[in-house]
UniProtKB/TrEMBL annotation:
One Pfam family named in its UniProt record: SPATA24
Biased composition (Basic residues): 153-166
Record protein name field: Spermatosis associated 24
Coiled-coil annotated residue ranges, if any: 19-72
GO cellular component terms listed in the entry, alphabetical order: cytoplasm; nucleus
UniProt KW keywords: Coiled coil
GO molecular function, one term: DNA binding
Keyword match Coiled coil: yes
Chain intervals for the UniProt region annotation (Disordered): 143-166
Length: 166
């Protein structure tokens, strides 16, 4: 081995020893650096694990809330469907009642139209019906209302709707 400039051959053994010791120190420092990096990685990994555990806990809580809200939504949906069914049933009943009333009203209108047709002479081929009491069908003995071509009027002395009499 060649001796570096400025070094004497007599102390070359001590220089080699110093270089070996220096290499050992460098290797041990590199090993310590490597271990330190491993410790840092493990610490970062542990920190990440803690954060992951916290986030997992939050996620589990949120999933629990979603489950509770889903159940509540299902209950409300069932209640709404029940109420809607009830309302539909009532609407159907009311519609049926309305149809019955319209049918009844139309029947009465037709009967009244025929009655007024007899009274006013619109049906000359048909005789004017007379009640069993002998009254003409367009009079009412209790109120003494008579129907004529101008419409029903009250006899003298009684007040009629819209036309006061003296």
């Amino acid at each position: 081995m060649a001796t570096p400039l400025g070094w004497s051959k007599a102390g070359s053994g001590s220089v080699c020893l110093a270089l070996d010791q220096l290499r050992d120190v460098i290797e041990s420092q590199e090993e310590l650096i490597h271990q330190l990096r491993n410790v840092e990685e493990k610490a970062a990994h542990a920190k990440t694990k803690v954060l992951l555990a916290k986030e997992e806990e939050k996620l589990q809580f949120a999933l629990g809330e979603v489950e509770v809200l889903s159940k509540q939504l299902e209950k409300e949906k069932l209640a709404f469907e029940k109420a809607l069914s009830s309302v539909k049933s009532k609407v159907l009943q009311e519609s049926s009642k309305k149809d019955q009333l319209i049918t009844k009203c139309n029947g009465r209108r037709e009967a009244r139209a025929l009655h007024h047709g007899y009274i006013n002479g619109l049906f000359p081929n048909h005789p004017v019906p007379v009640s069993k009491a002998g009254f003409h069908s367009n009079t009412c003995p209790q109120l003494r209302i008579q129907a004529g071509p101008g419409g029903p009027h009250l006899r003298k002395g009684l007040k009629g709707p819209g036309r006061p009499r003296k």
